[in-house]
Amino acid sequence: MFEILLKASFWFFLAIVSTVIATKLRLATALTEIAVGAIASLAIANSGISIGENDIWIKFIAGVGAIMLTFLAGTELEPEILKTRWKETAGIGLIAFLAPFLGCTAFAYYLLGWSVKASWLAGVALSTTSVAVVYAVMLELGLNKTEFGKVILAACFVNDLGTVIALGLIFSPFTIKSLIFIGFTIFIVIFAPLVTPKIFKKFGNKPSEFETKYLLCILFGLGALAIWSGSEAVLPAYIFGMVLAGSVGKDNQLIRRLRTLTIGFLTPIYFLRAGYFVSIPSLIAAPLALLVLLGGKMITKIVGIYPVTKLFKFKHKEGMYTTLLMSTGLTFGSISALFGLTHGIIDQSQYSLLIAAVIGSAVIPTIIANAFYLPKYLLPKTKKED
Fold this sequence. Notes:
Number of strands: 0
Largest sheet: none
Radius of gyration: 20 Å
Distance between the termini: 59 Å
Structural class: mainly alpha
Helix content: over 70%
CATH topology: Na+/H+ antiporter like fold
Oligomer: single chain
Strand content: under 5%
Number of helices: 17
Mean pLDDT: 87
Number of domains: 1
């Protein structure tokens, strides 16, 4: 127990350092956690020191962190926007997934010489849009309250849903277990939105935190079933979150408690561990490959998304702002890359390049968007302006 607690203390020391850096530089905490993890790995390399990155308890906490973060991302969905602006959200979201998915797969295969499986994994990892980054930007500017901002967020969900489904379909063997998993997931999708609010009304809103236990029970069960079938636990978590967006997603107090559990305890381990597997020497040795992956994602996103925004009559700034925010990546990109590493689809060098490209896509498009293409006329007016 002494060794476990000592290692846990070190992991959360790194989490504190990451949070301080994120606060000072005004970056997403997940971004700095990955970077700090990579630096820690470089610092203690060849020292003989073990921080337990492959210990079963670390793997469990990191795995639960990915599941919970994916679930919470699903609950942020605005069902009403999907209904009223479904053409824009579906059109932008689908092309935002397909363009980089196919384009980056081709770049990895033809330009970098990666294997077929590794190239498809690169396409999946770089097809994402970071809900965490986009939502943080929207929240800070107040755009999350505008219809423009809600359309972008809804398109993010369509984009990432495509990513999660592609990850499951391409890299999971389809067997009778898969049919059982799909059948049970469909059952949950149909009945969870009907049953959950009634159960919460009867047993919830008590100090026993029944709601959290209920959600964790189903998420763990779905995750176990997904892994048993050869799929990935984040897939049902995302879908489960989406179908509960209209009920659980509207319960601000419950969401806040779940965020405290997830962001405060679980995801720091996940992102620090993801960063720990990054090989900085591999990045230094292959800058051109990194440029191909990062440039490939941004180019394919821009070429795919901007014409679609013009099709839906977006003004130039609105179209470019939407395009650049949809070009960001972080959470699902790192989840996909780590999935590829742990399942032997890519090696550590390829993983390091993908993670670096994902981190770059979280920062560069955001800076450009806010510096040059922010549609200030859509920002909510402050009291002073009123």
